[in-house]
Design goal:
48% of the residues are buried. The longest helix is centred in the C-terminal third of the chain and has 23 residues. β30 and β31 form a beta hairpin. Helices cover 27% and strands 33% of the residues. α12 packs antiparallel against α13. It has six domains: 100 residues, Rossmann fold (3-Layer(aba) Sandwich), CATH 3.40.50.20; 148 residues, D-amino Acid Aminotransferase, Chain A, domain 1, CATH 3.30.470.20; 69 residues, 2-Layer Sandwich (Dna Ligase, domain 1), CATH 3.30.1490.20; 114 residues, 2-Layer Sandwich (D-amino Acid Aminotransferase, Chain A, domain 1), CATH 3.30.470; 118 residues, Glycoprotein, Type 4 Pilin (2-Layer Sandwich), CATH 3.30.700; 67 residues, OB fold (Dihydrolipoamide Acetyltransferase, E2P). It is globular and about 75 Å long. By secondary structure, the protein is an alpha+beta fold. The strands form nine sheets. It has an eight-stranded antiparallel β-sheet, sandwiched between helices. The N and C termini lie far apart (68 Å).
Amino acid sequence: MFSKILIANRGEIACRVIRSAKRLGIATVAVYSEADAGALHVELADEAVLLGPAPAVESYLVIDKIVAACRETGAQAVHPGFGFLAENPAFVAALEAANLVFIGPGVRAIEAMGDKIESKRLAAEAGVSTVPGHMELIADADEAVRVAGGIGYPVMIKASAGGGGKGMRIARDDAEARAGFASARNEARAAFGDERIFIEKFIEQPRHIEIQVLADAHGTVIHLGERECSIQRRHQKVIEEAPSPLLDPETRARMGAQAVALAEAVDYRSAGTVEFIVDKNKNFYFLEMNTRIQVEHPVTEMVTGLDLVESMIRIAAGEPLGLNQDDVALTGWALEARVYAEDPLRGFMPSIGRLVRYREPQCEPEQGQRLRIDSGVVEGSEITMFYDPMIAKVVTHGETRDDAIHAMQEALDGFTIRGIRHNLNFLAAVIAKQRFRDGRLTTGFIDEEFPDGYQDAAAPAAARAAMIAVAAVVQQRTAARDRGGAESATRDHWVVRIGGAAHEVALTPTDDGTRVAGAAETCVVESDWRPGMALFRGRIDGRPVTVQVDRRAPGFLLSHGGAEAAVQVLRPRVAELAARMPEKQAPDLSRYLLSPMPGLLVKLAVAAGQEVKAGDVLAVVEAMKMENVLRAERDGAIAKVHAEPGASLAVDQPILEFA
């Protein structure tokens, strides 16, 4: 076994690897950029080495610097995590040349599976079902149109070296094929340094289901069941679960056997994932193989009881797996939700800044349920524009799928993040959908359930009543604190203004808590909440409830069950007068093209005085490794240019002004 390993990554996956290594008694070395000098993974590791400036191309992606860090610290092996150099065969070769061990598969497997065209050829030879398509490289947009027409729309245009949703576009006609080819190639070149493109048939109503495999150097290859990863946005996974609500034991066994056959065909060693696209009739087709640990690996660990990072380390050290396929059993159900620094109300644009307040959920799951948080941040951490915007992963486990969903709802309600925008309410809104509860999932779920984009969810009647009752109790206790005295010992009257409606409520103290009449039906609220607490934890008529409470003068911002509401709680006479106040009108910004996110202006497609048509490309902004194309919403003319290519943009910074 190794005595010291280096983790060539950052964030939550670096912290995750460090924790498993420490359990094995292995010393750890972290690497970091100047932007990550105060990062959690640096603090957790036994040693840390500075690689260079913030941009990954000058730090985390510089192979020579990683090798030098190993020599400097005496690390014997390197765990790559995911992303960065995790699937770079040149990195593996460089480590081997330096007599260092790569905690992952060999060069041959990475090269074969990293090239989507070659991987599909090998998959077909190994007897794995594959998607119909044109596996030859596409030279230009004209050829993309010809090939797509031959396959039959819709098609998926994909980067050969792609991953993480980058370099992928769906085309449903010639125009989309032409535009999609250009965008996919540009994005692939920027993300992977490889602009090769191929095209395959797009499966309608698809589900994304993957099989986890483990293989040692002694000839043992097994699978650990599947993960359902169909809840995606822009081809990036948002919520995952294990097992899949679609599969039956027979389909699981057939998919697992094909995944094992592919791993054997490339002499695979380590943990890996074979991804399939599955239609509603359980027909499945090979998509790709990821030759690394996956972001969503915790759900597999939850249902199998195995530590996949530990398995990777032991395999790399030459140890046998010590188990066979018959030893693998799936117990219960697990869900994972990815918490991102992004603003769902602004098209999921990245949000950067400092975590002014960060509290991971501390709620006690009910009997038979478990909660796990994988994160790489602490309160005060900085979310920058240089790296992936993931903050944390929330993972829950229960005896049944409903149990796991219930535990996830409680966890999301109890997660406190301040200082940046985040997607907690969006995640809660997704799992609250009846279609999600029923397990009727597809990769188009988010687009279909939120056709006009995500908006603040309207709270269901029961949740709305709970928020009204909580708001009244919160205001009563805040008012008592401000008076420097105790809460009213008699009946107390307030008006709660929420969602454009006003609700008169009466609060009366009881032996158990506070009776609230007027929220809907009369209820009793119990809680030890005091002013300043970000979470209202308590019970309403004996049922547990958690509500986010954020003071926003002149009221509160409450979040619960995926719904967010600005609330004012006023005395009846004040509410009467407030209703007569005119609303402040927002300034007209329609004449400007504003940057929807902080990022780099990589392209400006127009000039002052130029006429534009609706749909014309105006600018391209790059943020957190993704290109975002900004288009004209209507016909018009450019009056003035406010930013030039290469400029670092702040959110809402003007780029163009229309005449």
